[in-house]
Amino acid sequence: MTGTDSDGARSGRRSGHRDPNAGMTDLRRVGANPDFWYPVALSRSVRSMRVIATAFAGERIALYRGESGAVYALEDRCAHRQVPLSMGVVEGETLRCCYHAWAYRGDGRISQIPYLSKGDGRPPRGVRGYPVREAYGLVFAFPGDPEKAAVTALPDLPAFGSPKYKTMTFSRTVRCHYSFMHENLLDMNHQFLHRGVVGRLHPELLEHRTGPRSVEARYLFTHAGGKRNRSASLLAAEGIGGSDSADVMTIRTDYPYQTLDLVPEGAEGPAYCLWAAYVPEDAEQRMCHAYGLLMIEKPGIPGVLHLGWPFIRRFTERVFAEDRMAVEAEQRAWEEQGEDRNHEVFPLILDVREVLRTNGVPLRPQAAAFDADPSSDGPASAPGDHPAGPAALEGPKSSTELPGG
Ligand code: FES
Ligand SMILES: [Fe+2]
Questions:
Q1: pLDDT one-digit tens code per residue, 71-100
Q2: ipTM strictly over 0.90?
Q3: Ligand 1: does its nearest atom lie under 6 Å from the Cβ of 80?
Q4: Is the minimum distance from the CB of 77 to ligand 1 under 6 angstroms?
Q5: Spatial distance between the Cα atoms of 99 and 88, rounded to a whole number of angstroms
Q6: CB within 5 A of ion ligand 2: which residues?
Q7: Domains and CATH numbers, the chain
């Protein structure tokens, strides 16, 4: 955009183009649909008999692992005086608040108030308990309607358990709305951004398919010269940057998750598959926690992947750092302009924006009102009893770094 084109809508009219965002809900004000399983921590960060703090879209969650090894997720706010339960102590399968020692079961019900005697006020029932599952080295919570948890499947990742693949796990906070992450990965036309790391890659869109909940794009990748990266070659089984062969990359947003598979020319299966989820942390959803599982095919020669592992890690971290730089800059631009003024032209990105819009949910009204002051600490939670209801709204947690990040 040039200096004179500061107003996207106006410049659109001048040049005879329709403003692509006109009349549409601003995508960056669309909340992630809570009726899915979202990773909220790495399994290894929830150690036995310990509790940690995590969050989904401004709902603070205390995650703890009991003596049995089971993980529980509770609203991170004691029903008594709102002190975070993540400051508490695990005893057997219960979590005891650090302040007056009220104890909670894994479902959020209060199991003990040590000093309560006859004639004292009636205590609340407890706090909200979230359905929890562990899979793929991640702890998943279900922040939506708990009745839907039982009928909602966890993502299916057959390569994770396969002896043919080894998994590299990523966990990072990114300061952007989750939608930027989906658009970034699906739009392979941004390879220019990675020119210093992967060389000159030429992506050609072969086809894309859009469904009510998904967008899938198939690209043909060929190397067009420039610097070649050895880790990229290892990662792509001598595909990307390693030889003249062409690789087919399939990227899919399958709401709310995203996957990417790379199949080198002539290969039967993918050289690697990525699964990713972008979990909003704050109520305004201007920050997300990206969890990624990169499942890499083991090459024929034993030990090669093991030796190359640190290099692959460094390579992928460099690529990710560049993507993060771009999406965080996009978020800052949105904040400066107060609305989405993107002039998107690529049809499949327009499609994924629509998929994210229609499958998402409105931001909670308090969060939207709160938008006006991003530096605010947020409203105080209501005092008194609020048994087992949805967690009260939290303000933006500008410095939160979740475990593993
Ligand atoms: S604040 Fe938790 S027991 Fe009092
Ligand atoms: Fe990228």
A1: 999 999 999 999 999 999 999 999 999 999
A2: yes
A3: yes
A4: no
A5: 8
A6: 323
A7: 38-149 (2.102.10.10), 158-359 (3.90.380.10)
